[in-house]
Amino acid sequence: xxxxxxxxxxxxxxxxxxxxKEFLVVGVFSMVAxxxxxxxxxxxxxxxxxxxxxxxxxxxxxxSLIALFFFVVMAFSEWSRSRLLVRAGVRFxxxxxxxxxxxxxxxxxxxAGSKPAEAFADLTNIRQFLTGNGIFAFFDAPWTPIYIxxxxxxxxxxxxxxxxxxxxxxxLAWGGHRLTMxxxxxxxxxxxxxxxxxxxxxxxxxVVEAMGMLDSLRRRWLNQHRQQLxxxxxxxxxxxxxxxxxxxxxxxxxxxxxxxxxxxxxxxELSPGAMIAANVLMSRALQPVQMIVGTWKSFITARVSxxxxxxxxNAYPERVGQTVNEAPHGQVVLQGLVAKAxxxxxxxxxxxxxxxxxxxxxxxxxxxxxxxxxLARCLVGIWSDTEGAVLLDGTPIGSWDRHELGPHLxxxxxxxxxFDGTIAENIARFSEVDPSKVIEAAQRAGIHExxxxxxxxxxxxxxxxxxxLSGGQRQRIALARAMYGNPALLVLDEPNANLDDLGEVALVxxxxxxxxxxxxxxxxxxxxxIVGVADRLMIMANGQIQMQGPRAExxxxxxxxxxxxASAHPVS
Length: 572
Known about the structure:
Layout (H helix, E strand, L loop, with lengths): L10 H7 L2 H17 L2 H16 L2 H54 L5 H15 L2 H8 L3 H11 L1 H48 L1 H6 L3 H53 L5 H44 L16 E8 L9 E8 L4 E5 L6 H8 L6 E7 L2 E2 L5 H4 L3 E4 L10 H5 L7 H11 L2 H5 L9 H4 L5 H13 L5 E5 L7 H16 L3 E6 L10 E6 L2 E7 H18 L4
Parallel strand pairs: 3-8, 3-9, 6-7, 7-8
Antiparallel strand pairs: 1-2, 1-4, 4-5, 9-10
């Protein structure tokens, strides 16, 4: 079936459209359940106006059995629609969870300050709304006019009264939302802000304790906490006033409906049975409206989540990359590479052109802020705002299928991050652990013996080992992760920043071994001690390549430049 126009171009709407049959069946069950909701009204009319007049026990039994049958059918319909929606909600989550995971990852990769966890909260909000009372109110609301019409048939004044209360409660739901929305949002935002403040300080507990910063931070936290309490108290006060007024209207509606029926009975315009039945019918007629009032907040939350999640999925659709039919050789070409960042007028990288042959070891040198780390991210295809091209074996690196290309790339970032899991799982990149490859990578990084000294060896959880590892040891585990499986291209950003002499020797030996295997290794550093392992050198400054070429030529040029500078400015 062709999708309607309002569905096309929206990833989330297209997903919901897949469940149109389930919603149609839920609508059918809702129709049956709501139609049978008239059973109590008809039953009361029969009991009060027929059975009690005729004093017939047989009629009472017959009417009661028929009503009981309808109640069973009604209960089955409500149970069926609930069960169907719950299962549809689970399938909805299963269909989207991987897409949301990938999209939130892409967002975190391309946008600084993004909130990946927010996407999963949005998915949960939508799923819970689709399986909760809010969606039932949506299916039951169209029956409110029908119930009001039946009340009108009993007596026009009863129908008018029911219509007035239905409109009033609907207006109350809208007005309550207007009054409470801003306060609720401020309360949530302030709570998140306070919690984030505490968490950030706990992550730096050692610094706080060492320099006696606790009292100052506690005073700042108390100020934020008091502001959050004030905002929350004001928000809850408004919510409680709205809820109290809503209950007042509901209780008033029940009493007025019964009183109006009594007046009509006294005037002889309504039977006692119709009076009781009308009161029950009125309660049922307003139940969907009352449910909308009660679930309005969750509806607004689900609507906001829907828009936010839909925008995320549309901005970051599933990537379809070129299939890796064979392992890449590792040739890298930069063609007019420009890297930009939001909030910065000048680009970080300014039209870089270079070629790294497969099997070469290239060392990129330069002062801090010269763009070396940005270049490293571009080389592995994780910097989004770029112009020009980074070609791997002649193909733009962004067009490769990342899942298949990943094992052929090794990347050591400047800021090392190890993940929750065992040491072996971290080295194996959380794929299926190959013990021989894990040990080989660890030995090259010079950490095999260190790992064996842990009580559980390679099976030691990082949560336990993390507190025992120095910065250099963490960097060497990350280096082993980058070298796992002998990838064709390795990009190592400041791999010797935290290494001691033994660690640097292990790094040099590992790079030489990878070179002997024909792997391309790009080392980024501001320390010249690693230069001896290079085939070629690249010197960067201010986002540009100042010099590149074979190691001996570049070193000779640098030496001549230094000699010329020394001659121009002799030491007195």
